[in-house]
Each structure stands twice: as structure tokens, then as C-alpha cells.
Amino acid sequence: MATTKLEDYRKKRDFAKTPEPAGSLAGGGNRFVVHKHHATADHYDLRLEVGGVLKSWAVPKGPSLNPADKRLAVETEDHPIEYIDFEGVIPEGEYGAGPMIVWDTGAWAPMEDVEESLRKGAFKFRLAGEKLNGGWMLTRLKPRPGEEDQRHWLLFKERDPAADPSTDILAARPESVKSGRRIEELVEKPKPPAKPVKLNPGALPGAVKATAPTRIEPQLATPTATPPDSAGSRDVWLHEIKFDGYRTMAHIAGGEVRLITRGGLDWTRRYGDLPEAFRRLPCREAVIDGEIVVLDEEGISRFALLQEALSARAENRLVLYAFDLLHLDGWSLANVPLDKRKALLKQLLASQLSTRSAIQFSDHVVGGGRAFYEHASELGLEGIISKRASAPYQSGRSKTWTKTKALKAEDFVIAGYTISEAAEGIASLALGEWVDGELHYRGKVGTGFDAATLKQLLARLEPLRAEAVKLDGAPKEIIWVRPVLTARIHYANRTTDNALRHPVFKGLREVELSAPAGAQRKRLISDADLASISITNPTRRLFGKSGPTKLDLALYYAMVGDFMLPHILGRPVSLVRCPTGKFEDCFFQRHPFTGMPPSVASFEAMSSEGETKRYLSVEDAKGYLALAQFGVVEFHSWGSTRARLEKPDRVVFDLDPGEGIGWREVVEAAIHIKAELEAFDLVPFVKTSGGKGVHVVVPIRPKLDWKKVHKATGDIANHLASTAPESFITTMSKGKRVKRIFIDFHRNARGHTAAAPYSLRARTNLPASTPLSWADLETIDAPEDLNYSSLPGLLATSGDPWADIDDCARDLPTSPRVLSDAPKSL
């Protein structure tokens, strides 16, 4: 049995070169070991003796005695029992090259059945080592769609007498328990430094003497179905691996390093010690173009791993693959041919390159693009980037760079399924695609599933059969379901009628929200409240024949009410009503209306035009629930309560992306804004807008009137825009917002509103304006996944991340001096 389990371990190693054991013992004990390993970067490996092998997890930041620290642990291949005593140096060129010490070892014991715990993903055990003792827990994280083979866990200490939040055990006890040596003592003596190569950028054709630029807009590749071929052409093309990470421009000048995102934001601090690697380069100043990634065990970049590393502060896992050099020591290289820029870049990096370097050179092949593309596809890579060797660097989208994805990958709605009589389970999924608010059939997918996935899908789809709608042009054997689940599909291309060719199921696109510490749900809606509400025409569909029903709308607001009501009770509200269920018939309602439920309150106040008007407010659960009967889809709330109408207690910075700005860039921008606001001693919260943007909401002490708040937030917005003027704009002109994000502060004027937390939006599939923790914001791939169908279930397990928002109120800064003294870049 051990032989089968060690197959992956042995495939990765050449035992004629590495001192690691091949493995022969079957073993039946209960020992454990924690290795400290310096491969690409320092990390720790936890290994437990189970079933004749060592079950292994790589822990990038190492174990912590503080129960509050939850450390990422990536499950790796099983290791042989002899590995418990292995300590030494894995030679260069071998898998996991680098020194390794036995940092801790001893005995372990399970607290529950081992196989059942590992299967469920909740594994409790006790350790009795020289450094680690007491109870520990490994809990498995839900895999992202398409990455089910990546098994990620969280490792943390149980609260028991062995816990010690005050001690950093990694720093206090860095030595090996076997030899007493530190890992630094095992590192091979460095080779004598090579004679430095003299870099002469001015000798390159096209180099121009110039001062270092503060920012260069990156060159972008044009998508193509097939890579360009150099055969029979005078144009020579270079072909590189396509990485899946954060595009980053490294600026080096005067000993300082700035790491700038594609959108022009300074993320230097966010990348931990990575800037230090650039300071060691043999140059006075440089601008290097590349991509920051995290690699999996096979050396493939995975964006999900990058998100996890940044969220867990595991910056030592970050690698920048450098693929272009645009400026060096007083010379602009933008007009130098690409192949000569890359040759100079390789020379610049040569003294720093090793298998463990935080900076790597993105190498290429010359010509043979189609063969390289096919090989990249076989390896499971994202695809390839092809670049014309003789071309200069051109900011923006260009045809001298092209990108060819290994397979097309898109998300499609699961609209139904078919049954296999032989297997008595799902045979295929029927796929749909939203077009102008209607769902269109796009064919079936019947590959990419394993038995466990098919069983799980059937369990999730069967309850969705009620009130499902058949799609035109589909086979009769399909069992239709309500279109609330989304699948990630790889496919070759589309037919003339838009059906997918050779589709492969890669997983469900799902959202998982973390539970904030201390989050509790307060019951605000009683059974009596629910029983008192009646819905006429409950089966009427909203926004097309595939849309949700009026009853779905009412049920959503009933299920999220306990979370939503604390944010709107006692506040003036405006409503978006869609009584017919058609987009074109929706309208904004800010004043009382005929037939309005008596449980909805109204009050008099002066309008911005100086007229006395009656406004609406939600004062209790019954009034809130009753509004669904009147076709209310959206709730928009004021930034003040009715009791203190003229003194706002919340302000909103609405980040509205212009044309050409994607979701990732919006998230980057929101994180940048968060840091800038924190510099003012404010506590920002975040939610999706329910559209393409993000709302950054700040609780403030209700001291200032609306005019002062509007002016102060305008000043702050201008400051925020000044920190990255090529990324942000504060004027409404749509013509100036292309490839920029509009920071809209005008919602902080009297009488203006913003979508309330958890409010649905009158759009296809009813997305919600969803409060998130800042960590969760980075894990969201598509904000529309937070909708009327998915959100109630997510909230039931996660709770409200804004539960303590009112406790975080601060004074809103109004002094011009405070604003001018704020840091311009974080």
C-alpha cells in the first residue's frame, strides 16, 4: 500500500542525485515531524505518520502557538516514513532544492477517527514534541472551481495550556531538534561571485537618454485564436508562458523601489519583502515589467494561490517573473527592439537568479509558436504570450503582442440536466447564457465530472426543479432547474448558433464568505411578522421568463432581514419599484404612494429646493416585509437617521469603473482607497454596489451638517484621486472616465442616497449590494454571484461583516492641513 501512496513522491525525485530516502519501510507508529525547508522561500512541512506513510502539509508561515493565528497549509504528496529523520541539502536542479532541518519531532495522536476526519476536512489531533504540544486542528478550505486538485487547509492551535499567544515559537526556537543547527548553517557555501558584466544600455539601437519615468502604462496583448508563426515571414516572434497573477511595473530609483499595478496604484507595501530583491540589482535606476505570481507544486501560476498568499500575509511565496526592461540608468529603452531589451534584462538579473530567487526571468522560445502553444496546453498552463522580436514597447493594447489561451474558459448558467439510466445519476448539464436579460440555451456538457461531483450536483439541482422554465432550442430529455448555479466551462469554440464545442466542466463558480469574529445574528423578524404578509401573484416572473418570481423576491428579503434591517431601520429610504416585473417599468419612489402599507412610516422634512415634502422610512420588520407586495426591488438609504436627519453618520465613496476597467482593477482600487482612508484615522467598510463597482462606506460621528460633510468628502475624494491620478477621477464627465475609476462622493449630499446594504438591484438575476470583509473582497471573482439566490445561504453561515460598523465611527477630517499632510501613496 505504501508503494502506491509514494508514487507521486518518487516520480518527482532522482534518487541518484538527491540524498532523500526512496522509502522502503511500511511503519505502523504515530510519529510526526515538522521540517523547516528553504526551497523557493522558507516554509515549514508538517508530516504525520498515517497508514504507513507521512501525510504532509506545507505551511508557508509555519505553525503558531497563538490560537487566533490560522495558517495556510497546502496538502502535498505523501512522504516515506524514513523522511522523519531526513536533514540535509537537496541539490540544485532537484525537486524542492534547498536545505532542510528537523525543526521539531515527537509523537502524535488523533482526537477522532483519522480517515473520517480527513474525508470531512475537519482533523483534530494532539502533538507531543519538543516545541509543539497539545491540541491542533486542520480544517480544509473549499476549492475554487477548476482547482479541485488543490487541497488547501488552515492549521491552528487549540485553546489549551500549551497555547502561548505571547511567544513566536519560530523566532524563539529556530534550531534543529536533531542536530542543533540552524537552516542557514546547511546552506552550501556560495560560489565565488562571477565577474560583473558591464551593462551598456546606451549602445542599443533606439536607446534614448532620458530621466526615469514615474509611470509607464503597460503594453497589453491582443487575444488571438492561434499564435503567430514565424515560418515564411520576415517577422520573428518570441513566445512566453502566460502567467496568472498581478501585472506589475517595478520602478527602481535612488535606492527606493515602487511596485505599481496595471491600474497605476502603488502596492509596494503590500508585497512584503519583495521590493528588497530589486534593491540588490546592479543598477542605479530601472523600470522592469513583469507579473507577480504564486506557483503551485508543479510550477504553474495560480491566481487563487496569489489571493490566499496576500490574504494570509505569506509574501515570502511571491515571485515576480520579469519579461521586459524599459529604462536603465538614464536610458529609455522603449524604442529598442524587444529581443535586445530582453537580452539586457537577463544580464541585469544574472547575478541574482537562482531557483529560490524572488525575481525570475521570463524566458521564451524563438519561433515555433504553435508547438509551444500545444505543449503549454498539455501542461495545463493558462496559454502563451507571443511578441514580435523587433517591436518597440507600445503602451496600451497592441498587435505586436498577442495572447492565446490554452482553452476558452467562461462561466455558464446551469439551466438543467439529463439523467443516465445506466449510472442512475446525472449524464450531462444543460448550459445557458444571459443575453439582454434572457437566458439562451448553449448546449450540454457531459465531461469533466467524477462520481463524487455528479452525486453532489444531483443533490443540489433536484430541489431547483420547481418553477423552472424550459429554454428554446433544447432537447426534450432535459430536466429543467431554476438558473441559480453557475459553472466554469472550458471549450474549444462555438458553432454558428452559439452552441459550445467540446465543453469540459471545471467546477461550480461559488462564493464562500468568512465569518467575522463575534458575528451574531439578532432576530428582528418574528414568525408573526412573516405570517402577516401576503403576496398576490407570487408566480409572476421579474425581468423575463427565466427570471425570479415575485415570491422569490419576498423570500429573499425575509431571509436577509435580520442582517439588513439594522442598516435601514430609522433611516429615510427611497425605493425602486418594478410592479410589472419589466425593466422599462421600474421607477424611483421617494415619497408616500397610494395604497402604501400602513406599517411603512412617513415624515415631513424640507427638500433641497426649500419645499416641505413627505419622505419614507422603515421603522419595523412588518413595514419592511410588506413592501415586497408592492414590487419593491431596491432599497436606497440616507447617510443619516430620521432622528438626526441633518447630521450624517455614514459617508460613501462609490468607486464606479469606466470603460476598460475590469473587476480585478476595481478590487485593487478599493484596497488602495482603504489604506488612504485609514491614514485619516477612519475605519472603512466595503460592499459590492450590485453592479460593476464597489462602495467604500465610512462610519462617522454625527457632528457635521450635510454641507460640511459633502465638502469634506469632496476634499478627501480629490486627495484620493491625487494619489493615483491616472487611475482615479472625481468629475462626472463620462468622456474622461475611460480606463479610470470615478470616485463619486456626491451621495454624501443632503437627500442623496446609496443602495442599502443587502438591497437587491433591478438587474438580471437580481444581484445584491453585499457587505464584505476586506479579505473576502479579494476572493470574489464575479460580484453578480452574490444574488437573491446565493446570499441568504452564505449569510446563514458567515453573519454580517458590518455588525460593528457603528462602533467604528470617527470624526470626519475637514482641515485642509490634515488633508495636505496625508501620505500620497501607501
Describe this structure in words.
The chain has 826 residues and is α+β, with helices and mostly antiparallel strands. The chain folds into five domains: 2-186, no CATH class; 206-405, DNA ligase/mRNA capping enzyme (D-amino Acid Aminotransferase, Chain A, domain 1), CATH 3.30.470; 408-508, Nucleic acid-binding proteins (OB fold (Dihydrolipoamide Acetyltransferase, E2P)); 527-637, DNA primase, PRIM domain; 650-752 and 763-808, Alpha-Beta Plaits (2-Layer Sandwich). Helix content is 18%, strand content 29%. It contains 17 helices and 41 strands. The strands form seven sheets. An eight-stranded antiparallel β-barrel has the order 1-2-3-4-9-8-7-6. Strands 10, 13, 14, 15, 16, 17 and 18 form a seven-stranded mixed β-sheet that branches. Strands 22, 23, 24, 25, 26 and 29 form a six-stranded antiparallel β-sheet that branches. The longest helix has 19 residues, at 550-568. The radius of gyration is 29 Å and the shape is globular. The two termini are 54 Å apart. Residues 311-446 form the ATP-dependent DNA ligase family profile domain. Residues 1-29 are annotated as: Disordered. It holds the Pfam family LigD_N.
Write a concise keyword list for the protein shown above.
826 residues; alpha+beta; D-amino Acid Aminotransferase, Chain A, domain 1; OB fold (Dihydrolipoamide Acetyltransferase, E2P); eight-stranded antiparallel beta barrel; seven-stranded mixed sheet; 17 helices; 41 strands; 18% helix; globular
